[in-house]
Amino acid sequence: MRNILMTVMMLVVVVILFNAIIAQDSTGTKSQIQSQGNAANTRISTLLPQ
Predict the structure, then answer these.
(1) Where are the alpha helices (DSSP H) in the chain?
(2) Rounded CA gap, 27 and 35, in Å?
């Protein structure tokens, strides 16, 4: 019973950390990666072929 409780508590902590670090709306890692990717795409699209 104690092992099941510890496992459930660890899963809850992982979900909370994921939501706080990765999936946060404006300052999360996901949004930062998307904004950097968009900036890279914009810079690549403005390059002139030689």
Answers:
(1) 2-21, 29-45
(2) 11
Dihedrals φ, ψ of 42, to 5°?
-65, -45
Q: In terms of pTM, does the model score above 0.70?
A: no
Structure tokens belonging to residue 42 = 């914009």
d(CA 24, CA 31): 8
DSSP state of 1: -
pLDDT tens per residue across span 15-39: 999 888 888 777 788 888 999 999 9
